[in-house]
Amino acid sequence: MKSIRIALALVLLSTATAFAQSAPKVEVFKSASCGCCGAWVEHMRQNGFQVIAHDVGDVPAERRKLGMPDRLGSCHSAKVGGYVIEGHVPAADIRRLLKEKPKALGLAVPSMPPGSPGMEGPRAIPYDTLLVARDGTTRVFASH
Questions:
Q1: What are the residues whose beta carbons fall under 8 Å from the beta carbon of 35, sequence distance 6 or more?
Q2: 108: which of 72, 89, 98, 99 fits an S-S bond (Cβ 3.0–4.6 Å)?
Q3: CA torsion angle 134 140 142 144 (round to 10)
Q4: CB within 8 Å of 129: residues ≥ 6 apart
Q5: Is 33 left (phi over 0), alpha (psi -120 to 50) or beta?
């Protein structure tokens, strides 16, 4: 019986390790004092992403380094799978982006719309996730 439990534990550990290694890695640039950024990071982790969060003093400067237009800015910027993610983009939209692999800079949810991941609350509003082309033009990728 003990050997069966050990074998089962090894299988579970191996499966968990394989899942962690296959989970998409997200690198986030955020302010240390921003609570909603931390909530978005937690949303991403709960949806199976490996998140590396960097507290930075100048989020807009990081956004510009990544090539995201300031007019699409929010409170945090991220990188995943060769794409730039700006703001409170839902994990499901990022998974779709990684699956479809469009030729684009990435996704953005400009500003901080109530009801988006990390901005949950009683007064959610409809918002769009935008697909951002490399030239800065956008189109609606998903509506929420």
A1: none
A2: 72
A3: 130
A4: 89, 90, 93, 107, 108, 109, 140, 141, 142, 143, 144
A5: alpha
Residue 1: the pLDDT is 54
- Each residue of 57-73: pLDDT tens digit? 999 999 999 999 999 99
- All domains of the chain, ordered by start, with CATH? 22-143 (3.40.30)
Tokens 């730039």 -> residue: 84
Can you tell me the distance from the alpha carbon of 62 to that of 56, in angstroms, rounded to the nearest whole number? 8
**Residue 106, amino acid:** G
Give Rg (Cα) of the chain. Answer: 17
Q: What is the pLDDT of residues 67-122, one digit of tens each?
A: 999 999 999 999 999 999 999 999 999 999 999 999 999 999 999 999 999 999 99
Q: What amino acid occupies position 124?
A: A
Is 144 in contact with 128 (CB distance < 8 Å)? Answer: yes
Cβ–Cβ under 8 Å, residues 116 and 127: yes
